[in-house]
Amino acid sequence: MARGIEIREAHFPGRAPIDTYGNGGFRFADMSHRGSILCLPSGIHGWDMDMTKPLSVENFTKVLDEAGDIEVLLVGTGTELRRLPPELKQALKARGISSDPMSTGAAVRTYNIMLAESRAVAAALIAV
Predict the structure, then answer these.
(1) How much is the average pLDDT of 121-125?
(2) What is the DSSP string of 3-31?
(3) Percent residues over pLDDT 90 in the chain
(4) Exposure string (b/e) for 44-76, b if CB count within 10 Å is 16 or more?
(5) Cα distance between residue 39 and residue 42, in whole Å
(6) Closest Cα partner for 79 from 48, 103, 112?
(7) Which residues contact 46 (CB under 8 A, 6 or more apart)?
(8) d(CA 31, CA 16)
(9) Which of 105, 107, 122, 127 lies closest to 60 in space, CA to CA?
(10) SS3 state at 41
(11) What is the C-alpha separation between 109 and 123, in angstroms, rounded?
(12) What counts of helices (H) and strands (E) characterise the chain?
């Protein structure tokens, strides 16, 4: 019996450089994703985040869950730099993660370089 369309969580099960960004999304691994993404050791995940939402500990739960495999978290905050709130920086630091907020474009470029160097890097990228 035929089943209807099955909606699954957006997830690419691997690490891949980001080929392009803009127009509200990203291209990577011959795929495209509309919206923000988390680039983690477990893969690239869709992230329900935009420039109007707060950078809170709750919005970074998936990052914190994979903290053992992350040394540096690059946070692409959109078109403008936003500071990370002290409670988020503290939660990341408590798990051994160094965090660096920057524009999304700068975060994509830095992520690609660090990924090519096989560094323990992750990125939280807000779509622009």
Answers:
(1) 98
(2) --PPP---EESS---EEEEETTEEEETTE
(3) 88
(4) bbbbebeeeeebebebbeebbeebeebebbbbb
(5) 8
(6) 103
(7) 9, 10, 11, 33, 35, 36, 37
(8) 11
(9) 122
(10) coil
(11) 11
(12) 3, 9
How confident is the model over 44-66, as a mean pLDDT? 96
Task: Please identify which residue in the block is written with the tokens 């660096």.
Answer: 100
Q: Which two three-digit tokens encode residue 28?
A: 């990577």
Long-range contacts of 57-66 (CB under 8 A, 24+ apart): 57/87, 57/88, 57/91, 60/88, 60/91, 60/92, 60/124, 62/38, 63/38, 63/92, 63/97, 63/122, 63/124, 64/91, 64/92, 64/95, 66/40, 66/41, 66/42, 66/122
Distance separating alpha carbons of residues 31 and 12, to the nearest angstrom: 9
Q: What is the pLDDT of residue 10?
A: 67
What CA–CA distance (Å, rounded) separates 83 from 87?
Answer: 11
Residue in this structure with the two tokens 């994703």, named with its chain if needed: 33
Pair of tokens at residue 69: 């495999």
Q: Encoding tokens for residue 20? A: 């392009």
CA distance 31 to 50: 21
